[in-house]
Amino acid sequence: MNCNLYNILLRVYGSEAVIAKAFHVERAAHWRQNVPERIALLCHLSPLIPYTYNPSDFNRDVTALGLKIKK
Fold first, then answer.
1. HEC string of the chain?
2. Spans of the chain below 50 pLDDT
C-alpha cells in the first residue's frame, strides 16, 4: 500500500523535492518503503490526491476506530 501512495504522490507532485516541500519535511525519499500515517491521512483529506486512507494498512483496528472512510 505505502509504495502505491508514494507513487501517487510522485504523479501528483512530480518529484521527491516537491513532495517534501508540500508536506514541510526535509526529505521524502525514505517514504518509498513506508509513507507515515499522518501523511496518508492528509492525502486522504486532500481533494487533489486520489488516495483513500485504509486503517488496516497501518495495523489499526478498523472497527475500533469507528471511521466512515469514503472519498
1. CHHHHHHHHHHHHCCHHHHHHHCCCCCCHHHHCCCCHHHHHHHHHCCCCCCCCCHHHHCCCHHHHCCCCCC
2. none
